[in-house]
Design brief:
Strand content: 15-25%
Number of helices: 4
Shape: elongated
Structural class: alpha+beta
Order of helices and strands: HHEEEHEEH
Radius of gyration: 20 Å
Largest sheet: 5 strands, mixed, barrel
Strand order of the largest sheet: 1-2-3-5-4
Helix content: 40-55%
């Protein structure tokens, strides 16, 4: 929220200093484009970590905000050690997806000390698809307005 307020203040200052509305819109589109590129990079990195991981089975143990974050993460017991899922757990269907003491298929990446459950795999796939779609939309937009 603070980030959005800061960006709004910067745009307001640009407008007060005489920047045209067209320039402010182009800056906003550029910032959104950089965000989408970063998002694509995060999902590519996550997918690489998923592909290089080891397929295994684990038992769901709990959901907790271990790092004092806002979203809860699922924890799995794999080979005697507890690993945190890479992505936050699905809160709406938590009772149907995360059943305590049930053995599930996971992908374990010991290098980053995280595991991937089915929800994380879907997040990686959908994240790649959505970010590629958004990047293509930006390329079409840039091509239409001759930024490239």
């Amino acid at each position: 929220m603070e980030l959005l307020i800061g960006i709004a203040i910067i745009f307001l200052l640009l407008f007060c200093l005489g920047a045209s509305v067209q320039l402010i819109i182009e800056i906003a589109i550029g910032i959104i484009f950089l965000f989408v590129v970063f998002m694509f990079g995060v999902f590519v990195y996550s997918t690489i970590m998923l592909v290089t991981g080891k397929r295994t089975k684990g038992i769901y143990t709990r959901a907790e905000n271990k790092d004092n974050g806002k979203l809860p993460y699922a924890f799995y017991l794999i080979e005697g050690a507890e690993y945190k899922n890479l992505f936050p757990l699905e809160v709406i269907f938590q009772n149907k997806i995360y059943i305590p003491e049930k053995e599930v298929k996971l992908v374990l990446n010991k290098r980053i000390k995280r595991c991937f459950d089915g929800n994380a795999v879907i997040c990686c796939i959908m994240g790649i698809i959505v970010s590629v779609f958004l990047l293509l939309c930006f390329l079409i937009y840039f091509k239409m307005y001759s930024f490239i």
